[in-house]
Amino acid sequence: MPIMVPPRFPTINASPTVGAVTRNFGIGDWLWVTSFTAFSAGVGFAIGKPIRRPTFFYAGALGFLMSYLGRYRINEYKLLGYYPNPSECRWAGIEFKELRPPIGIEP
After folding, report:
1. Which H or E element spans position 74?
2. Is 107 within the bounds of a domain?
3. Where is the NADH-ubiquinone oxidoreductase 21kDa subunit N-terminal domain (predicted)?
4. Per mean pLDDT, which range of 31-45, 55-69, 88-102 is the poorest?
5. Count of domains in the chain?
6. Most exposed among 5, 16, 61, 70, judged by the fewest C-beta atoms under 10 Å?
7. Does any domain span residue 101?
8. What is residue 9's DSSP assignment?
9. Which residues of 55-78 are buried (b: 16+ CB within 10 A; e: fewer)?
């Protein structure tokens, strides 16, 4: 479903590819993905008493997928201008400013 409201912050890339969004990941994003993956794998090992190893890998893979897709969405919204993006604007040489007031529940 397309987003119908105009962006609240400057747009960096109007049509970002998967590579562009993944390249936009910062150290904090990768740290979040790694930590969440490790935590979920640990929980999978702890609760998977009879079959610990498969549960460990399954929970780790599920944790990686959930955390990566969550960070992917945030970084895509940063490039599209729907999430605050001061560092991306500085990198692209664009002035960071709020283009419109927030509507409803927006970051």
Report:
1. helix 52-80
2. no
3. 7-82
4. 88-102
5. 1
6. 5
7. no
8. S
9. bbeebbeebbeebbeebbebbbbb
For residue 8, give Cα distances in angstroms to 29, 71, 82, 99.
Answer: 22, 19, 6, 5
What is the predicted pLDDT for the residue at 2?
63
Amino acid code (one letter) for 68: Y
Asked if 86 and 76 touch (Cβ cutoff 8 Å), the reply is: no
For residue 25, being part of any structural domain is answered with: yes
Residue in 76, 49, 48 with CA at minimum distance from that of residue 62? 48
Q: Is 107 helix (H, G, I), strand (E, B) or coil?
A: coil
Report pTM. 0.85
pLDDT of the residue at 103: 81
